[in-house]
């Protein structure tokens, strides 16, 4: 081990736990154990792998309260959200428990014999996750990867490793073999980079910033390793004049201030048709002021603190010179609190272009449908987005015109375990979740039998 990591409760600012920090030797040991475990796992009958994943799901479901409490303390997530996240992990496991028996190859008509394809697991998959949704994002990788017959080594973010560590223990309690699903806590530059450089890690899944993701992808390219990237976002919430403005305004705070804005899908730009711009802002203000920021352990809390003091400084820096329209409330004192903030912006302002990853939203007017699409696409990112209109034709045209991986009409829903999720442009490569994700953890083998 190379020392320890000190965990800080973001709602109090106080250190509460030390955990071991792995060095290269520990990562290499974990990868070696995963290689061995994977061979036996892939040799199991598909139904046996399915049963094991269902057992893992049941154990997670039985520990939802415990996992949620860990996330409240380690990440400052409101307890209601944290419970949803833990239950979601169980649902993702259950969903992909159906995959081992459905990874069906093809029989292809060819001359002179029989030709069939197989979906072969890669072997060992390295998964690197960020601090904003530690449990859920990890499960989007490990559940389909395991279902497809791979072993997994998971590196949580240094700031928020507790739920990942507990999931690793619960996997063993559920009967998953030793070595099959391991959690290694340590820095990205050591543990994460080792996933990239180690020849026995045959696929990497990375969720995090576009900057680090680009570096991880370049390293994987040098090793000829496939990589899935889930990166940053600057998603637009587009409100047309014909929309139900009350609903659009009432739901807008949740779409960007959820998880204190530390959400890759945060609708951090609200584009409003000019003719209803003033009215929309008048409706938005009370909704923002009513957003309850405070103790994450309370069931009445909508939003907890930011993850760290350093991150709060970064978020605050985005308000330098910004035209703040109004702000909600936040507690004073200990903890990394930041009040929900609404800024009036122009397309070239920094606040309208860069990912803040905090509870700050930029509001911009637009003139017509074409202008709305142009503005929505005026970003390097392309992860999510919402549009509000009562006009079906417009909804279809705008949804097709916006370059984002995940869009939602008259709602802000982005994540469902049964539907594909991922970004375009600088928001990522590949898709997670949905019916095809287990296949993404396999490579196709073609076998020809001469007759
Ligand atoms: P990053 O700083 O990129 O860190 C993400 C993970 O990568 C952490 O586990 C980190 O380890 C590790 N890492 C850091 N440097 C590395 C390197 N050189 N090689 C390999 N791994 C390395 O991001 P973050 O600040 O934790 O998360 C915020 C970003 O993630 C935002 O941009 C957000 O939009 C994005 N995000 C995207 C999504 C999806 S699904 N698209 C979901 C959530 C978040 P350490 O713990 O040591 O830093």
UniProtKB/TrEMBL annotation:
InterPro entries: Ald_DH/histidinol_DH (IPR016161), Ald_DH_C (IPR016163), Ald_DH_CS_CYS (IPR016160), Ald_DH_CS_GLU (IPR029510), Ald_DH_N (IPR016162), Aldehyde_DH_dom (IPR015590). Residues 3-447 form the Aldehyde dehydrogenase domain. PROSITE patterns: ALDEHYDE_DEHYDR_CYS, ALDEHYDE_DEHYDR_GLU. Coiled coil: none annotated. Pfam families: Aldedh (PF00171). Keywords: Oxidoreductase. GO terms for molecular function: oxidoreductase activity. The active site is at residue 230. The keyword Isomerase does not apply. Its EC number is 1.2.1.-. Belongs to the aldehyde dehydrogenase family. This is Aldehyde dehydrogenase family protein. It comes from Microbacterium invictum.
